[in-house]
Protein 1
Amino acid sequence: MQEGQVGKVGELLAIIGVAGETVDSGQSVVGSEKPRPEAIPAKEPATTHHPLPTPHDLGFISPVVAKIAAEHGVNLSQVQGTGMNGRITKNDVLAFVESGKKTIDHGPQTVVSRPSPVVTPVAGDQLIKHTTMRKSIAQHMVESKHTSPHVLTVMEADMSRVSKHRAANKAAFERDGVNLTFTAYFMMAIVAGLKAFPQTNASWTDEGLLVHKSINLGMAVSLGEDGLIVPVIKDADNLSLLAMARSVNDLATRSRNKKLQPDDVKGGTFTLTNHGVSGSLFAFPVINQPQAGILGVGAMQKRVVVIPAKDGTNEDVIAIRPMVYMSFVFDHRILDGASADWFLAKVKETLENWS
């Protein structure tokens, strides 16, 4: 190449040798040492869903060319290079984009999917076919997790006052044919919380937050190995403790006897699940869509707690109290941490100050 002449990318400029060394047609040095292969720069990670062909297919692709192709979704295998040895240049890609041909690439797209893991049975394994109820539960649980950002907050409540009230009134309720369970108290406390913070008794819509006028409480009832079902107590805010306990008894009995009517499981605006009946202390329940949250109640246990000093004294007291953990899972689109805690604190306050 002569001095002042414009060289093309990749064109041989000069060969450095020793005096008297023989040079062939201008492409390689004649000698005992073999020419080293040209290093191929590493390709930048593609930011497009269309997989770019490898440098082996297209030759050297400069970082600038790769970036422009990625930004415009251009498949470089469809671009005719005009550079040396057919190399694709920046102008080649820009010309291709301006021609409007970038849309002709209909190659495979990257799809994010979560296929079920393939399980290969081995000798001795047993396949138990899914029941209709189990399939329905699975579908609803997966849909709920995909719909709502689930967040958990936990508080514990001192059930001393509730326990004393239940012990004092259990016999009277039995004379009316009602079994006074702790579930009825939790339901009444939830009603108090929903009344104090109505946004917890709501559903998310694209247009806005739909706050429900009625308080319809669902209660999860275990059916053993068959799964669970959630019957609904309608207009729970209009019920006394006796009426609430009677409704709890009725729906639980008809659930286990498979005598619920379709309307019994519709219209819930909030749900209680008492996972403590099987000994569980904590849980992370799944929201029953399209509700704003679900309250899980753990097993009641007597624990040593510190009772803060009262009446201006500095003498705290250590006592044994029947305590229960309450796990509130809420839809973070509807409630924030503070508003969720306000609701749960009201439930706690209602239980601890029962009279």
Protein 2
Amino acid sequence: MKIFAPDTRNISKLHEKLYAAYELAFTLVQVTAGFMFLVGSWMFFYKAWENAAIWLFVVGSALFVIGPSLKLVRELHYALIGDYEDLARRAEP
């Protein structure tokens, strides 16, 4: 199985469920990071909120790294499932 092949998500119902779950997580992480940057940018207009704004930027940046990492984890998860399914097919009489 190739990594990041677009058809992988349609191999089985389990692959479809995993794809949906990882896409939902990816979307939530990216939207949260975007809102943190938006709110952090607005907070920089007020000197008293500057430290909080910096922290929102730091956490938002970390989320922007985590988002694409979820896609890599999803592909590795697919690979593990594929190996187990291959082994199960070989073990059948």
Protein 3
Amino acid sequence: MSIPFSPWKPMVRAVVDEAPASPGVYQLATLVRTVVFIGAATENLSETLTLHLNAPATLHPHLGHLYFRIVPLENPEHTQAELLGEYRGSHGGSLPAAQMTQPPPSVAPRRHLQAV
């Protein structure tokens, strides 16, 4: 699949703010352009990328400075699924690093007090 992605850009607020406010697909990568996340913005690419900037814990903590590239599309979920399928096919079935990590499940606190 040949998708007309934009050139790679640094993941900094000033550049992310220039992203279009339309649906689309994006990739996040390291300095050497190792793709760590393939995402779909169903409504607004700029807002979705800003969420990644505001919550860096959603990505792997040891990735360092990130870069992104985008392509505005009307049906981003379908294209994201195709891109993830291609990625898995060329990486032994693995997902990108940041998509493999999931937040730890929240555990309800236990009461350790006993009635006397």
